[in-house]
Amino acid sequence: MPHLFLAAVTADPSPLMILPFALMLLAIALMPFVNLHWWERHLPKVAVGLGVVTTVYYVFYLGNPGRMLHVAHEYVSFIALIGSLFVVAGGIHIEVKGEAKPWVNCLFLFIGAVLANVIGTTGASMLLIRPWMRMNKYRITAFHIVFFIFIVSNVGGCLTPIGDPPLLLGYLKGVPFWWVLQKCWIAWAIVVVGLIAVFYALDRRNFLRAPREVREAETRRETWRIEGWGNVGFLALILAAVFIKQPVGLSEALMLTAAVGSWFATPKRVHQANAFNFHPIREVAWLFVGIFATMVPALDYLEIHANELGLTSEMKFFWLTGVLSGALDNAPTYLTFLAAAMGLHDLSLNNPEHVRQLVATHDHELIAISLGAVFFGAMTYIGNGPNFMVRSIAEQAKVKTPSFFAYLLKYALPILIPLMVLISILFFSRWRLF
To answer: Are the beta carbons of 76 and 253 closer than 8 angstroms?
Structure first.
C-alpha cells in the first residue's frame, strides 16, 4: 500500500513490551498443536487481548496514540489488499488436466514465480493454490504446499515492486521501479532454480511411489480451462489502487469495490468449483490483528537501537534483515533496516533524493536488505502475508500442512538456509562474484 509505515513518531518502548509479541508468536506456533479446537474458538480473543496490552501501553503510558492509529491504518490497508485479492482470485477457476508429472509441477511453479511479479505474491498465491492442489490431488503431500509457499508466495516476487510488499515500500520511498529487476535477477534465478531443483527431486520420488493408475492419470479426458475471466478487470483495478496515494482511504475503497464487484459478478458455479469460503481470510484477519498490534514495540525498539547492532557490512544487513523478516512481518522489517542503512550515511529515509543517493552509492546494502526481506519471508508462516492464507486454504481442502515448528525445522532451515548461505557468499562476502 502506498501509505504504509510512512508516518507516526517512533517512541522508545521498554524491552519488556516485546513480551506480548513473543506470546503471540508462541501461541501461533504451539496452540494448533496443543489444542486445535480451543485455538480455533478463542483465536480472536487472544489476538485482540494481546493487542490491547500494547495499545494501552502506547496510548496511556507513552502518550503516543498516533503510533497505534497509524498501525491501525496499516492493518486496514493490509487486509484491504490481501482480502480483495483473495476474493477476486477466488472468482477465477482454473480447471487442470489430469495428474501432474514432476516436470509439469516444476513448470507450474516457475510460471507462478514469474506471475508473482505481475500481480504480487498474494495475487499469484490466491490464484494458483487451488489449481496446484487439484493437479496433484491424488498424491499431494505437505512438501507440495511448502514449496508453493517458498516459490510463489515469497521468493518469486523479487523482481518488481509489485511483487512483494517490502519492495513496494522501497519504491514508494524513492527506489527506482526497475532497480530491483536490474540488481536482483541473478539472485532470484539462483534461488528459484535451486528450489525447483530440490522440489523436482522430492516430487519425482513421490511420483514414482504412486500407484500406476495415478502416474497415468494424465491420459484421462480432462482439459485445461479457465472460468471467471471478468475478474481480470477487477484484478487490474486492485493493482492500480496500490499506487494511489491521495486522498487517504481511496485506495482501500477501490479495492473493496473490486472485491464486492467480483463477488456479485462471478457465477456461483465458479465459487462452488473453487470450494470458496471466507474462513481463510477471517483467520488471517484475526491473526494479523494481534501481529500488527503487538509487533510495534519490537519494531520501534529495533529502529531506535539499530546502530547498536553493529551493522557494518552488507553481510550483516542481509542476515539480520532476513532473520527478523522470518520472525516478524517482512515489510516493516525492510523499512527498519533501510532506515538504519540511510542513517549510517547521514541520509534521511523520508527524502526521496537521499534514497536515490543510497541507490547510487551504496546499492549493495540495499540489495542485501531487499533479498533478505523477500527471501527470508518464506522462513515461517508469519514472514509474509500470503503464507498463512495458503496454509489455511490447504487445510480447508483437507490437505496436510506442517505445523509452525515442523515447517521451520523440517523444511525452511534445511532447504532455505543453504541457499541463503550461497547467496550471501556470491553477493556479500569477500569472494563475491556479483
So the answer is: no
